[in-house]
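Regression test attached.
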Amino acid sequence: MRRLRTLVRAAFDRAEALLGTVFPPAWNPLLQLGALGFFFYWIVVASGIYVYVFFDTGITEAYASVEYMTREQWYLAGVMRSFHRYASDALVIVAVLHLLREFGQDRYRGVRWFSWVTGVVVLVLVFVAGITGYWLVWDRLAQYVAIVTTEWFDALGIFGEPVARNFLAPDTLDSRFFTLMAFIHIAVPLIALILLWVHLQRVTKPRIDPPRGLALGAFLSLLLLSLVHPAVSQPPADLATVPGEVGLDWFYLAAYPLLERLPAPLTWGTALFLFATALAIPWLPPLRMARPARVDLENCNGCARCFADCPYAAITMVPRSDGAPYAAEARVDPSLCVRCGICAGACPTAMPFRRAGALSPGIDLPDRSIAFLRERVEAEGARLAGPGRIMVFGCEEGVPLEDLASDRVGVVRLACAGQLPPSFVDWVLARELADGVLVTGCAENACHARFGITWTEARFARTRDPHLRKRVPSERLRTLWAGRLGRKTLEAELEAFARTLEALPPVTPPRRVPGLREAAEV
Amino acid sequence: MLGQAGRWAGQALFYAVAAIVTGVFATWPTWTSFPVDRAQIKIAFAHGGARKEACRKLSAQEIAELPVRERRPSDCGRERVPLRFELRLHDEVLLARTLPPSGLSRDGPSQLYEKLAVPAGRHVVTVRLADSGRREGFDFESRFELELRPRQSLAIDFEPDRGGFFVRRGRAEP
């Protein structure tokens, strides 16, 4: 499974990097798959509502009404029908890619199982909605899909009479059948929407709207396709004739030739096996996670910065339980915590300057603590020599950091770039542990923990608490969001940064004010 | 590195490729599910066979021994006999099935749904059904002379009230 994940991730890394050469990070379609899925869903809904106004649920009327839209009112209803068809295809494409990308990123196990499982169910519902949509047109393809589907379900032997008997001959079909199909075609997407809401329950600030530039590009692409190659019906269904050759929509109906040709026990067994595997995959094998973030009430003043920054809604603020003179305290839900450490990076007490007592912030990762981080920085700093010394803080999901350390480059790994409290940058420079600090991680807009890059940039820009102190010279701090394929970029950046630092005057340590502890300055 | 114009062109190229892939695979390649020179005979019905055990009249004493709510004049087993079905094409057996009753208690109707691909042209089809549990012979038999066009789908149904087997030739309801 690990090998498969690595392959999938490598494929996505390369595809994202390729698209990154022409798209700005925010517009890169592969970094907005979930948002694009929502975008296409709403197009399907809006175009579906319009098309339904003209649709007639009768055996002959269904085809005729769709033909009217396509031929007579091609400029609006026809375009809407094409939108409905192609946006549905685009929806299933981005949904499958989204699923694969999350698999490759290993963001489906551990506490993330919930989003995975609900996502798999939503994907199944998308297929159900799409397939029932094809029935409604009642053309030759609809006839083929209806017969193969009902025969497949009849193979279960759970119906009193074969459902496929409805399609035995022209006189066995009832108009009410179309009413039922229309109901399913409308109800299933609504159920999917409710499930999508559930799907997003474990993330904060979900990206459900793509950036305007990307949305515009996708919309124009669909519009152009609808005008140049409009969706049309195949010849009308005729139950007195076998639908010999059909133009399949391979995005939804790729399995149909197999359902038709292979024995039903085999196809049912395979389908159930794949579905069960997809649902069980978060536990195949389960993710061995470090301990979740832990609140130290002695150092928690209830400032709620961790609550505001947690990307997975794992932190809630609750009334104070220890009698301390603060209104609230942070509480971590271990079943939601992904151990990214962004909460520790947001904690104002994660202050490396502190020397009085142990360095124990209000919230921290027990297995990757801020105190351990300070030890690592001190050890690396002590090793560095010569001009142009750089302390690299790197996220483990970003640029590979193996063998990067040298006598001028110290490397400290983070669970996520957002785990780094900005005060560490100040501290490294103030203690002259290095001449410059470089923070690196995932590619821009592709943070493995969602908001690590965003919050880090905002903290460094002093627009989000905890701010980077003003005394930190900006020319001694760089960020590089290059992703897993960015090793060469990182090496080039380090070279350039070192030359810049060499040209700068030596770091001037801040003047100590007698009797005033530095920690109190922040 | 690409210039701004190159980046816009690259984005346009991506959207064009995405649209082409979506448009093409939405209908192509076509799938041939049935050979063009053959016709199809569908045989489908659901019919309950006779009860496996004949009803036995209960004696007055047996009725009296039953709980009041369950008292009845006779005792009938629920289980039905399996059906025997046979379809001959030009007197050659093409399909022969023993159809078990459905349901956990084997008291539901037996079902058959089969599709046979045959050469287009003139055919003599004989269908037979035994629903009484008899071991020899059949209770229903029909013989149809059919002229089948290529890709024609012809359905043979069974309803005892309509005299047994019949060919469905009706059109869709208006």
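Expected vs. actual: identical. DSSP finds 17 helices and nine strands in chain A.
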